[in-house]
C-alpha cells in the first residue's frame, strides 16, 4: 500500500510538471521581488491545460497565483497539513471560481482537488505562503492595482495569429513566454479557439487586455456574480463606456480553419 501511494505521488508529480512546463516563469531574470500574478488559462486545443480547461469552460479557467520570491520564513505547520487545509478550502468552492483541475480526464483525478493541491504546493507553500493567504490572493477578483504582467503566446500558422494561451495580472514588470511572429497580430482564443479576439495594437496590449476586460468578456460569462459584486475600475462611467465601445469595435471573430493569411499579414 505504501508503494502504491509512492507511485501515485510520483505519477502526479510527472503530470504536474508536464502541465506546468510552459507556465513556470518565475525563474526569468529581471523579475523584481514585488512581482506577483493571478494567472488564467484559456481553453485551447494545443496545451494540456487548455484542453482540460475546455472540459469545464468555453471562456477561461483560474490557474494559479504566483510569486517571484519567497514571501516569508519557514512555516511552523507541515506542508502536508497546509495542503490538506488548502484542499478543504477549495473543495466546496472550486466551481464558483472556475478553478478546475487541468489534469487530463483519463488520469482519473476528477475536477478536484489533486490538481489544486499541487498548485498550492508548487506556487504557495514552497514560497512560504499559508493556505488561507494563498486562497485569498488566488480568488481576489478586485481590479484595483492589477495590470497585465505576463502572457504565454505562440504563433499558430493555421490561423495566422499569435495566440495568447494564458495571461497573468498583478504587480511588477511585464514578461512573456513563447514564440511570436512579428508579421501577425496577437489574439485571445474564444470558445476553445473556434473564434478569436484580435488585438489591433500590441503596443497597447495592457490597455486592450485590461483586468476589467477579462472579467467582463470572459470570467463573468461563467461567473456573473463576480461582476455583480464589484463595479469596474474605470474612474468615470463615461470613460468606461467609451472603453468598452472601443473594445467591441476591435473584436474580430474568425473561423478556426481560415488559411488565408493575407488579411492579417503586415509584411
Structural summary, described in words:
The chain has 267 residues and is α/β, with parallel strands linked by helices. The protein has a domain at 2-21 and 47-53 and 62-138. Helices cover 34% and strands 18% of the residues. Strands 1, 2, 3, 4, 5, 6 and 7 form a seven-stranded mixed β-sheet that branches. A hairpin with a 4-residue loop joins strand 6 (186-190) and strand 7. It is globular, with a radius of gyration of 19 Å.
Main pleated sheet? 7 strands, mixed
As a whole number of angstroms, the C-alpha radius of gyration is 19 Å
Unreliable stretches covering 5 or more consecutive residues: 1-27, 231-240, 252-259
The overall pLDDT average reads: 79
Helical stretch tally: 9
Report the portion of residues in β strands: 15-25%
The total beta strand count reads 7
Helical content class: 25-40%
Spatial separation of the terminal alpha carbons: 62 Å
Structural class: alpha/beta
Order of helical and strand elements: HEHEHHHEEEEEHHHH
Indicate the overall shape: globular
Q: What topology emerges from the helices and strands here?
A:
Blueprint: H1 2-20, E1 36-41, H2 48-53, E2 61-67, H3 79-90, H4 114-123, H5 131-138, E3 147-156, E4 161-171, E5 175-178, E6 186-190, E7 195-199, H6 205-208, H7 211-222, H8 224-229, H9 237-250
Parallel strand pairs: 3-5, 4-6
Antiparallel strand pairs: 1-2, 1-4, 3-4, 6-7
How would you concisely characterize the structure shown here?
The chain is α/β, with parallel strands linked by helices and 267 residues long.
Amino acid at each position: 500500500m505504501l508503494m502504491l501511494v509512492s507511485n501515485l505521488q510520483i505519477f502526479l508529480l510527472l503530470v504536474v510538471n508536464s502541465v506546468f512546463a510552459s507556465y513556470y516563469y518565475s525563474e526569468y531574470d529581471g523579475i523584481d521581488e514585488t512581482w506577483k500574478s493571478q494567472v488564467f488559462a484559456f481553453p485551447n486545443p494545443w496545451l494540456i491545460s487548455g484542453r482540460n480547461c475546455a472540459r469545464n469552460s468555453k471562456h477561461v479557467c483560474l490557474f494559479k497565483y504566483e510569486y517571484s520570491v519567497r514571501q516569508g520564513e519557514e512555516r511552523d505547520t507541515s506542508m502536508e497539513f497546509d495542503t490538506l487545509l488548502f484542499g478543504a478550502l477549495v473543495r466546496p468552492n472550486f466551481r464558483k471560481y472556475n478553478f478546475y483541475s487541468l489534469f487530463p480526464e483519463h488520469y482519473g483525478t476528477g475536477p478536484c482537488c489533486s490538481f489544486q493541491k499541487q498548485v498550492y504546493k508548487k506556487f504557495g507553500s514552497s514560497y512560504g505562503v499559508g493556505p488561507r493567504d494563498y486562497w485569498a490572493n488566488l480568488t481576489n477578483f478586485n481590479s484595483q492595482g492589477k495590470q497585465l504582467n505576463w502572457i504565454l503566446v505562440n504563433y499558430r500558422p493555421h490561423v495566422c495569429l499569435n495566440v495568447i494561451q494564458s495571461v497573468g495580472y498583478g504587480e511588477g514588470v511585464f514578461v512573456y513566454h513563447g514564440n511570436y511572429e512579428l508579421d501577425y497580430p496577437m489574439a485571445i482564443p474564444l470558445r476553445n479557439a473556434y473564434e478569436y479576439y484580435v488585438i489591433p495594437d500590441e503596443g497597447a496590449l495592457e490597455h486592450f487586455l485590461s483586468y476589467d476586460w477579462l472579467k467582463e468578456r470572459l470570467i463573468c460569462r461563467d461567473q456573473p456574480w463576480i461582476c455583480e459584486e464589484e463595479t469596474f475600475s474605470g474612474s468615470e462611467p463615461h470613460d468606461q463606456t467609451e472603453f468598452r465601445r472601443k473594445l467591441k469595435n476591435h473584436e474580430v471573430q474568425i473561423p478556426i480553419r481560415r488559411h488565408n493569411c493575407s488579411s492579417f499579414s503586415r509584411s
